[in-house]
């Protein structure tokens, strides 16, 4: 993808053109909203052509700046159409606040609330449809062209994860072993300066892929690429941005110390807690009939002989234990010997009613009480049993890092990785939990909640 340089920064031309097009869409939405408002009240527009044209331009600029502020014009936008729709809604809210502030400061350019509301609705529909069309017809606009330099350590991991927003242009091998590998993308010989290879292949970024770097990396050539406006990425930074995970294979303490993130502001925590209280209380009241039916079904299946709920110790924030309550989905003798076991696929201990409750996530509804009490949150890592936490914390030194935040009913790992029932699965989920702990934000929580609806409705990831 060709880039243009604006104020000293390289921007991808397709994304610049997309910003201009969406700015025009917002301006036309304002044009339509204004005419609709005054047509409905039977009055003429109180602006001259020049003033109205200036207002359209101002609205377009304000809303495009708002869309840029939430990352809608970044090539690394990974969340797809769902994430784009959330970002568009957030940008339109920010743009509306900006226009309200401008109207307050400049009363001559007053924008009626009804006009602004119409503009937001029209702009949201049209820009979302535009993005949908682009994702279907021209997805390369949101894809990065990557040139890999080094060995195959990153390549194998990258191909296993199957990133959708990525085009691997080729591999420039720096070891004999890497040169002998065959992939679906070409191996490019290092017979010219790296900057020439990169520009000829029209790459957006260079990804380093070599573990033993002592004298192996052509630092001067990489510096030349960086100075020419081509970003050079480390594997951990790349996987974090591209795949939403912190890869344990490449993780080291120095990266954790230097990396940005791992910060939760007071306002973010306050908003999260207020949302947890309001949402858990509301959802609890709404699902009382469902929970009563679930309790009745469990009781009938067991002929009213056994309890419908079970309580179990789980580990919460900062390693503090708490009791979680769920609908019982297994036989009462599931762990008769007292030994903790992972639940497995088609686990014979799961009852027929329990299988349905697990698939629909109804078995987790009683945990809303833990959210209200502040022991859990709506969004966070899955709360695990102390037996598993203790074992995995000893086995892997970074496992305890997931305890820095409250556990949640749903989370990034639950969405990105299928239901796990082994220690290896737990460590793979840890990669996503570390990403969440490092990059926790209100937007990420909102994105997880929206995608959880898909999980609940279609049973994605449920066992």
From TrEMBL:
Keyword terms of this UniProt record: Membrane, Transferase, Transmembrane, Transmembrane helix
Main location class: membrane
InterPro entries named in the record: Bact_transf (IPR003362), EPS_sugar_tfrase (IPR017475), Sugar_tfrase_EpsB_2 (IPR017464)
GO molecular function: phosphotransferase activity, for other substituted phosphate groups
Pfam family, any one: Bac_transf
Keyword Cell membrane: no
Superkingdom of origin organism: Bacteria
GO CC entries: membrane
Domain Bacterial sugar transferase: 272-457
Residues annotated as transmembrane: 12-32, 52-73, 85-106, 112-134, 277-300
Record localization: Membrane
Membrane topology: Multi-pass membrane protein
Family: Belongs to the bacterial sugar transferase family.
NCBIfam families linked: EPS_sugtrans (TIGR03025), EpsB_2 (TIGR03013)
Protein name: Sugar transferase
